[in-house]
Amino acid sequence: MDRPKVKKWEAPKSVREFPLGSTCPSDHLTSINAGWRTFKPVIDHDKCVNCLRCFLVCPDGAIDKSGERLEIDYDYCKGCGICATECKLGAIEMVKEVK
Ligand code: SF4
Ligand code: SF4
């Protein structure tokens, strides 16, 4: 998966340049997380129907849909739990990180 690069912020010049939706673009983690995540999402592939809702709502683009089944990129997942909350089939469980 291509990861984001740090970009110089430039003020929008017109209303059209303001982002729609969330306040930050997807993929806003530009380096791997440093181990501060306390819970991580785990997908139950037997329950998952590949609707891609979790992929669409993940604010960090940390769900990879390029393979045969969805995979979480734990280097970039911050453990916010939005994907688990939004999965209507309960196919994502937030599991406590073990150090
Ligand atoms: S929202 Fe749930 S059912 Fe849909 S793709 Fe994600 S894990 Fe699978
Ligand atoms: S826990 Fe948050 S950052 Fe991690 S995959 Fe789910 S929505 Fe994305």
- The main sheet orders its strands as 1-4
The top-level CATH class of one domain is Alpha Beta
> How many beta strands in the DSSP annotation?
4
Level-2 CATH architecture of one domain: 2-Layer Sandwich
Q: What is the CA–CA distance across the termini?
A: 26 Å
Could you report the average pLDDT, rounded to the nearest whole number? 85
What does this protein look like?
By secondary structure, this protein is of the alpha+beta class. It has a domain at 32-99: Alpha-Beta Plaits (2-Layer Sandwich). It has two helices and four strands; from the N terminus they run βαββαβ. It has helices at 53-57, 82-86; strands spanning 39-43, 63-64, 71-72, 92-96. The strands form two sheets. It has a two-stranded antiparallel ribbon with strand order 1-4. A two-stranded antiparallel ribbon has the order 2-3. Strand 2 (63-64) and strand 3 (71-72) form a beta hairpin. The protein is globular and about 45 Å long. The mean pLDDT is 85. The structure holds iron/sulfur cluster (2 copies). One iron/sulfur cluster binds at residues 43, 48-54, 70, 87, 89, 91-92. One iron/sulfur cluster (SF4) binds at residues 41, 58, 60, 62-63, 72, 77-83.
Q: How would you briefly describe this protein structure?
A:
Helix content is 10%, strand content 14%. With 99 residues, the chain is α+β, with helices and mostly antiparallel strands.
